[in-house]
Structure formats: structure tokens, C-alpha cells
Amino acid sequence: MNNGNQLAYLAERFKNSYAARHWRGELSLPISYFVNGILGGAVVAVIVAATSEFIYATTTPWNIFFGLIITWSSVLLVTVWQCVGIWRSSDAHPSRGGRVFWANTAKVMVVLGLIQSGFVISQNGIPQIQESLRILAGDPSVGTYQLRIINAGTEIEYIGGIPFGASERLQALLDAAPMVQTIHLNSHGGRIGEAEKLREVT
To answer: If DSSP codes are grouped into helix, strand and coil, which group holds residue 115?
Structure first.
């Protein structure tokens, strides 16, 4: 099968897929609304919560930024897919023998869902992305920090904020100074995840 035939085959498969049928409003209103809308929305919410925790806990600033972009873009795409499919299924519901009341009720819920999704994205997604950009810019709100070896190489003094990367620099300094026994921390705070990594290093 050549590339042209493969693309045509994949296009035909997608055209007849469950996702495409929902998008066109071909699924019944109960399936579109309860399964793809409510149940699908709950699954997306759980995935977003788990992904956000994983991103902040285990990755670098650039990975955090791209992870958040991918996560919230996916949320937006899924939300649009859900709402368009439910709306189109509502339009077709009376012609399938369903009641106009339920079709209109579903449309009202779609509008309310869009408003809620917009609120969630504006209150969570956008601030998270903005915060990740500040981190990439050097985390000016956290401030700088200094590390120095004192007392004949037996102690390390940490002064300043705790931005991303601080734990790695401290670990490198400890590796270079094996005689260190004490670490003095004089900090006003910073990134919680990085502070936890500092605790693990020490």
C-alpha cells in the first residue's frame, strides 16, 4: 500500500470513527451527553490533575512549560469536541423521535459547560502557563541565591531564594566538597518542589 492509499485508508477510518461520529452529531443524545460529555469530562479532569502534579514534581522548567501547553490545549480541544457533538446531536434529537425539551435542555447545559470550562482555563490554565514563563525568565519573584563553602570546607552556606535548579547546584557543590558536614540555610523561600529536592539532597 503506497502513501496515498495509506492516507486515504486512514482518512476513511477516521471518518467512520467514534470520535468523528460524535463530532457530526450522529450518536444518540444520551450517549453524546452522558458518556462523551459528563463521563468524558470527569476523566479529563482526573487526567489534568494527575498530569499537573507530575509535571511540577518531576520535570525541568522547559518540560513544565511544554507539558502545560499540551495539557491545556488538549483540555480545550476535548471540550470543543464534546460541546459541538452534543449540540449537533441535540439538533438531530427530535428527528430521531426524541423530545424537544431534552434537546433544548442539553443545549442549555452545553452553554453552562462552556462557561465553566472558560472559568477553569482562565483561573487555572492561563495562570499556570504564565507562572511557567516567569520560571523560564529566571524566576525573578523568587530572587537569586548564593552558595559558598566555609570553615575549611566543612560547611556550606545557602543564602537567598529557592528557584528551580538550586538543588542540582547544591548537589554539585557537595560532590566537589566531600568534607562538608553541615549546611546552613538562610532563605526566604521559593519553589516548593525545589525546596523538597533540597531537603532530599541534604
So the answer is: helix
